C-alpha cells in the first residue's frame, strides 16, 4: 500500500470516497473554515497527508485562480488516488451546495419581492457588509508580514476605485512586483518549508509528469469546455445571456485570484456594472445565501448565473433559462480548477521550497486585501446608504455584526440567520 511522506498508509479509494461525500455536506465556514477542517481531518486525525505536503499544496492552490479550498481537496484526492481521486474530491466538495443554492436562488427569484422576504433580506445585507469587512481584517493580519505589504493593498484599492484598473491587471502586477520584492528583500516572503524530495511518492505522481499526460489533460479540458458552448449554438431559443455568462465566467475562472471575495469584486465590476445582470443589492443577497450553505463561497457565482437567466430568459421559461445559467456558470467556474490541479500538481510537487513562488503569492495576497476592501465599500454603499441616505437600522446591525465576528462570538452562517430574523421582525412590526 502506498504511503504519504507522513508515513501513514494511504486510504483505500472506497474509504476516501466516503469521506469526500460526507465532507460536501459539512464544509461550512468559507475558505478559512474549510481549510482548517481539511487540516484537522486529514493531517491531524487521519494522517493521510503530512503537514509539510499539506502546506505546500495549500500554497500552490492559493497561487491559482479559483476556490482554494476546493482545489486543495482536489489536490489531496489526486495525491492519494490519481485522477479518479481528484475528480471524486473536487466534485463531491461542491455537489451538495449546487443543489441547495439552486433551490434558494429559485425562492429568491420567485418570491424575493414579497414584503416579508424582502424585509428579512434587508436584515441580511448589513451582516454581509460586516462579513466582508471582517475578511479585510482577517486576511490583512495573515498577509501583512512585511512593511511593504500594506502598500500593495493600498495600491490595489486605489487602482480599482480611482483609476478603474481591471482586476486581472491588478493581480498580475501584484504577482510581478511581489516576485521582484522577494528578490530584493528576502524578508518580504519567508521561504516555504524545505521539500522532502520524492520520498513516499506514489507511482502516479511521477507518471503524471509525462508530456502525454499533459496533452490528455488539456485535450479533455478543452473538449469539456467546448461541449456546452456547442450545445448553446444548437439550442433553439437559447437567450444570448447564456453565451455571455459562459464566456465571461470562463475569463473570470482564469483571472480571479484570492478567493470568493476577490471574485465578487471582479463580478461586480463587470456583471453588475457592464452587463446589468443584477443589482449590487441582489449580489449582497446572493452572498448571504451562499454563506448559509455548505461548499465554497464562490458558489455565489451560480446565484449570479441563475438571476441573469431568470431576468433575460429569451424564448425559454424563466426557470429553464435560470437553471441553464446556473449550471453553465458553475461548470465553467470549476472546470479550470480540475485542469489546473491535474496539469500542475505533478510538477509543483518538485517545487517545494521555492522562494520565488512564495514571494509572488505574498504580493498577490497583500493586494487582495485592497481588492476586498473595495468590495466592502461597494456593498456598504448599497446596504448602509440606500438612496444615498444612511439607514440607522442597517448601520447599527453592521457594526454589531462586525464586533461579534472580530471577537469570535459567532460565525458568518449564524449571523446571517440572525440578520434574517431581525429583518423579518422589523418588516412585520412595520406592516
Structure overview:
- Helix 3 packs across helix 4 (68-111), helix 5 crosses helix 12 and helix 6 (149-161) packs antiparallel against helix 7 (167-184).
- The protein has helices at residues 13-26, 30-45, 51-63, 68-111, 115-143, 149-161, 167-184, 203-207, 211-234, 240-255, 260-275, 280-291, 300-311, 318-348, 355-384, 392-407, 412-430.
- The protein has one domain.
- It is 76% helix and 0% strand.
- With 431 residues, it is mostly helical.
- It is globular and about 65 Å long.
- The chain contains 17 helices and no strands.
- It starts with 12 loop residues before the first helix and ends with a helix.
Topology:
Elements: H1 13-26, H2 30-45, H3 51-63, H4 68-111, H5 115-143, H6 149-161, H7 167-184, H8 203-207, H9 211-234, H10 240-255, H11 260-275, H12 280-291, H13 300-311, H14 318-348, H15 355-384, H16 392-407, H17 412-430
Question: Which features does this protein show?
Answer:
single chain; 431 residues; mainly alpha; globular; disordered N terminus
What is the molecular shape? globular
Computed Rg: 22 Å
* Straight-line distance between termini: 66 Å
N-to-C SSE string, H for helix and E for strand: HHHHHHHHHHHHHHHHH
